[in-house]
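Hi, here's the filled form for the chain we discussed.

Project: internal
Contact: R.S.
Residues: 395
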Amino acid sequence: MKVLWFLPTHGDSRYLGTSDGAREVGYDYLRQIAQAADQLGYYGVLTPTGRSCEDPWVVTSSLIGATKNLRFLVALRPGLHQPSLAARMAATFDRLSGGRLLINLVTGGDPNELAGDGVITSHAERYEASEEFIRIWCEIVARSHDSEAYDFEGKHLFVKGAKLLYPPIQTPHPPVWFGGSSDAAHDLAAEHVETYLSWGEPPEEVKKKFDDVKARAAKRGRTIKFGVRLHVIVRETEEEAWAAADKLISRLDDETVARAQAAFAKMDSEGQRRMAALHKQGGGGRSREALEISPHLWAGVGLVRGGAGTAIVGNPQQVANKLREYQEAGADAFVLSGYPHLEEAYRFAELVFPLLPLEHGAPDALPGQKLSGPFGEVVANHFVPKSFEPKTSAS
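And the returned structure, exactly as it came back:
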C-alpha cells in the first residue's frame, strides 16, 4: 500500500472548532511538515483546495526544493483553471520536481464558494464540465510527448490547436486522482482517472463504492486503483488513543457544531451528505458510543470539519488492522492526517509503518551506519531496546 500525509494549508491545532491551541500556518511550518513526511518515507502529501486554504499550487511548488522524494497531490478545479493552462502548470511542476506530481481533480460541492469563484452551475453541469476538462487536459499532456495539437468542442469547453511544447516527465501524464460519491462521479472516475478516492466510511460501504466504480471501468475496458482519505489517532495504548480523540473535540460547543452542520447541509455534494450523516447514527452525541460508527472508526472530526470526517482510533496494531480492512476492500492508497499534523506525521510513521506492507518506506540507513545511545540502538530506522547495564567507566 501507499501512504500519503496532508499539508494543513487551512490551519492546524490541537483542538477542533476553536482557536485554542491554533498554529500559524506559514511557509516555515508547512516546510517542516513536508520535510518530515519526506524523511519519514511517506509516498506523498495531499494539499487541500478552496477559499479557506492557501493556494495549493503556490504552496507545493515552493516546497519542491525543500524535499527529495515526496510526491505532491495537487488540485485542479474545472471552472477556476482552463485545461490548456492547467496542462502547462502540471507539465512545468512535473519537470521541476523530477516527476513528483499527482493530480487531484476537484469538482467542488459548496454552491456559495463556487459562486464566489464565478462558477454558477448545477451539480450535473459541473460534472459535465469536469468530464470535458479532464478529457482535454489528458489529451493535451499526453500528446505533448509527440508535439501534437488537439481540437475539442464540447458543451462547456472548447480548444483548437491546443499544444504543450514542454512535456512532463511522467507518461502519458501525471496520474489523476479523484473522489466523488454520486453516479456522475463514478462514471467520471471509471472513464478518466487512475485512482478513485473515497472518504472514510465504514469498510463495507467503501467496498460497495469501489465495486461499483470497478464494474463501470471494466465496461470501458479500464482498470483503476483505489484509495481512502482518513484521519488517524494512534497511541501506544487503546486507552490513550480514545483519550486523545476525546481531547480533540473537548473544546467544541453546541453552537459551533450546529453552525458547521448547517453549512454542510447547504452543499450539494453526495460525499459530504454521507459524511454528515455518519455522526448522527449514534443520536448526534459526542460520546465514544455515539461517534464510533465501526470498530475503531470515529466520526468526531466530521462534527465541524467538512470533507473527510472520520478517524481510525486505536493502538498501532488496531490502526494497522483497520487499514488492512480497507485494503481487503480494494484500497491500495491511503491519504492520512492527524492533529497537529507535524507531530502526528512522526507518531504514525514510527508506530504504524513497521506494521504495514508499504510500497515505499523510510530511507535505509547509510552503509555501516549505526545510531546508538545509552538505552538502545537504531538499526535501519527501527528502535531496538537493549538491557541497561551500568558501566564502570565514564561514557
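Let me know if anything looks off before we file it.
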